[in-house]
């Protein structure tokens, strides 16, 4: 899973601000993407960035020109402004400013105003990290995590990200939460993942707030708490996070109150019109299973699920499998259902992994196989008190010691199907 690099400045209180996160929020306000159109909010964000320095003013102009915010869109002129930003960041970096060296590395990583060059980006990040820049340490950790300009190395990534986190870098805490959930470079630990997300969210990370909404919604690393889930999703949704908006809309759509349902359905519809895959996934679930104020529509559901599948979205694969398993708008076909579940499972869908494990456990659509059932159900069970976890316990109870040994070895040796959180698991 690719993690984002960042370009930052620090305000008078030494609080970090991610420039491109702010610029993208300004763009969402300007175009009304995931929130009401608000040009005054756009201006406030852009003015704040513009005041920081000549380099950041140039970045601001480059983004405005490249995206057409308040001016005609012109990618060529946008690149000219980014070139000016690179000049000033280089000047500041050569005078010993570590954050500026890291920001110059960001421009090389993205090819903004300078040729895209991952090796050069990593060199600038390393130089800045050696000067003690937490953001550069974070960016270098991300490079090791993704193999950008350096040889991919999860353990080096964890070491660098932990160092950045120890210096209060909130993005590093958010990425460490992901690594502990996935078991990359560290022992898998949903509880520790939750703790890092909570730390990052309290410090202002929108991504971490959205992740907490999911964690509370399914009981991942903490007790299941729907009120807390809604609260964290609302916080992230207010900052334009599409994943949070889609899941928040899902809660509203399941409400018995027509007013809340209408609000949720409108949120989903607007997000779908903008091509947001999380919203499409949630809407597909509603169209398959129905809710109090909306009857199922299998034809539309299958169209949306197929659209998601064409985009490689694991939730689309899973939901098509559900339709074939239960004969919802299509004939019952367990082999097809198993095939779609496997595609979802290998893409990281916990729902797909759970469903495939269940089919292996009972031998429906696939040949009965306790080892495969154990493997897929264990892959799908980071949270206790779920159907998948109970099914895992049931399968394990009837296995021989040799079968358990082989299943555990398979789980260790084949880490490919990482979980992909495609939305709250409303159907087990």
UniProtKB/TrEMBL annotation:
Pfam families: Sel1. Gene3D superfamilies: Tetratricopeptide repeat domain. SMART domains: SEL1 (SM00671). This is Sel1 repeat family protein. It comes from the Bacteria. Signal peptide: none annotated. InterPro entries: Sel1-like, Sel1_AlgK, TPR-like_helical_dom_sf.
